[in-house]
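Dear Dr. V.,

Thank you for agreeing to look over these. As mentioned in my earlier message, I'm a first-year student in the group and I'm still getting used to reading structure tokens, so any feedback on how I've presented them would be very welcome. I ran two proteins. I've put each sequence directly above its structure. The first is here:
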Amino acid sequence: MAFLLVVIYIAFIGLGVPDSLIGSAWPAIHTEMGIPMEALSVLTLLISGCTVLSSLFSARILNKLGTAKVTAFSTAMTALALFGFSMAPSFGWMIPLAVLLGFGAGAIDSGLNHYVALHFKASHMNYLHGFYGVGVTLSPYLMSLALGNVGWRSGYRYAFFVQAGITLLLIASVPLWQKTGSEEQQEEGKTVNLTLLQMVKKPDVRLVWLIMLATNAMEYACGVWGSTYLVTEKGFQAKYGALALTVYYAGMSIGRLGSGMLSGRIGTWKRIGIGAALIAPAVVLMLLPLPGAATGIGLFFVGLGNGSIYPNMIHLTPHNFGADVSQSIMGSQIAFAYIGVMLAPPVVSAVSRLFGMKVYPILLAVLYALMVIALLCFIRRLKKQNRYNPEI
């Protein structure tokens, strides 16, 4: 099981690799292709929308094919999409590649999160998402190197090589999953597939959806538009904007890995609270009219605080709702997380067209307030039902 856990961690690096590429490369892409800056929202909308669909149907697909095969195949899909982006002669070619990328990501996210939530400790869940942070930190770093030398297309090719290597490892590891397959099948045999309508009727589920939507909208608003904001409003060069995203994602990785290391000493709910508290001063720092370096520091602390909220909420799913329905609710949580991912870029784009990119920090503050309010309401409901355990 120890080696399989390492493979799962590496698979989550592969999940993170594509997510931060488009944001760091976009200032160069839209300039080269002569397309509007706001066209980025089309791609992010497609990627996120397809990820939402993939997540919602993940329970049935995973039950039929198993986590190992779905993860390997889906990672191969994302690798193919990255190579396609590097070769795309125009914006139109990127549209079907965005669809391919989105469908691949949703299945990986749902399957691995549920597997780890059932079979491993809270620390492992945080480490898992810490390795996602490694992937999303690596990508803008590779892109910043490419932008400073050979161009954004080479940045996508670098990422493709990483993703292709992870795909080969996952294919080779399928027998490892089969050795633990009896355990996984026992858990899947207890699974109750809830319909979307059944979940909508549950107030607790709706609150969790709102938390996941807000925290991931904030994460993606930083990842997609953070570089552009620094370039357009703070005078950064494109390569330094991409480097600032590396710092942001490094903060997210540190937050997740740090949360994992603290899991034996501090309960999951307390770690969520610490993460939420760290974001407040960061948002204030970004709201103030300070130099670009201060904005970069603010982005780092947003990543540091927000990074631990998503994996810890995911880990609590079986505890909050029961293992029998956790796969369905897990898929729906991830779907709403990606709805946040899907909505954040076009909302930032639409508002910035009306008022300019200077309103970007205000939008982050609104998302933060929404997440905190939903989180407090959810905890209050759990306390009333005697299901809140701060020591978990």
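The second protein is here, in the same arrangement:
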Amino acid sequence: MSIDRWSDNVLVVELQDDPSFSDDLNALFEQVDEDKHSAVILKFAGVTFLNSSNIAKLLKLRKKLISDQRKLVLCEINTNVWGLILVTGLDKVFEFADSVSTALASVQMAAE
């Protein structure tokens, strides 16, 4: 995983399939706890599947960020993962963007 600080208030995180996915989100939780002001963009280009544990961690991250009044955007989701997101109804829970640049624009607009 790479966590890139795009600006003072935005983290861009590139995720991979399990077992890295779980480890990456655990590391991200630590980063989010330390940095109380950053919005998070999760880049799913390297993720080809999600399991129930992954979904639970994503929901926990969303809850944490929302409670801190921060934004979470998921982007670059492949077709297989998108199908799972639609079937589970998560498309109504999370915010999505096609690309990192679109996600960054969404975060910046919300900050204004």
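From my reading of the second output: The longest helix spans residues 52-67. The chain has a mean pLDDT of 91. Does that match how you would interpret it?

Kind regards,
E.
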